[in-house]
């Protein structure tokens, strides 16, 4: 589907305005983001995303609206995996809660540009080489299986070869200097732990984008819907992190449910020339899988808490 240039420009302008308000007005001063503030911002971003989805539905039809909503739900759910990694990065590098929003802001700003480039490349490949769709589909199925088998493992980007190589190349200091990414010591310009946290977050986002972008292309081939649903999910990632970081590990069955989603959309993509799945069916299946994972996680966490409480009382 062709989209008018003004739609792209208006969306880009909206994103820039919201980012300017975020850093320049609401978070001009560094502070630790509390649960109430995080919840408020999460609701704002979700409301904006759903409002945009309503626009897509009214202007471009029900199928496009359902594709946008399904893409947004998938990307929002997959982004929770990023939160696990953010918790590890900030903990390993000793980044205080006071400066975490600043790191995430610049990390997500870079992610917007990188994902835009990756979406444009993916759309061009699918347009020119139809067989790429089978590669994407197979890749998503394999990724889902791998995620299911490795669901008990914890990723440690701060121990990766990329991080070690970066430490060798970039002169660094273990000392924080306020909210600065670089500082000067003994006449030398050195990177602070904030810089390395930012670099790891950007690297992590690229890795996750390799999974999430093909997952949305499995729902729709419309670059505008792929891009806007992806960006809205990313824009709400910071507030979601501050809301869920303290208890994200309680979602025991989240990763298996995400794995099932990747397998479903991968199979849908690989079989696109054989089986046509209506957007409403895709949305229903994805929502059911994720809801099952979340509910099962909450039930298990509640039973575990009740069991611990009972043991403590005896």
TrEMBL record:
Keyword Aminoacyl-tRNA synthetase (UniProt): no
One protein family per Pfam: TerC
Subcellular location: Membrane
Major subcellular location class: membrane
Residue intervals passing through the bilayer: 6-26, 38-58, 78-99, 104-125, 131-149, 194-218, 224-244, 256-275, 281-301
Keywords: Membrane, Transmembrane, Transmembrane helix
InterPro entries associated with the record: Integral_membrane_TerC, Integral_membrane_TerC_rswitch
GO CC aspect terms: membrane
Family designation: Belongs to the TerC family.
NCBIfam families in the record: R_switched_Alx (TIGR03718)
Name the record gives this protein: Integral membrane protein TerC
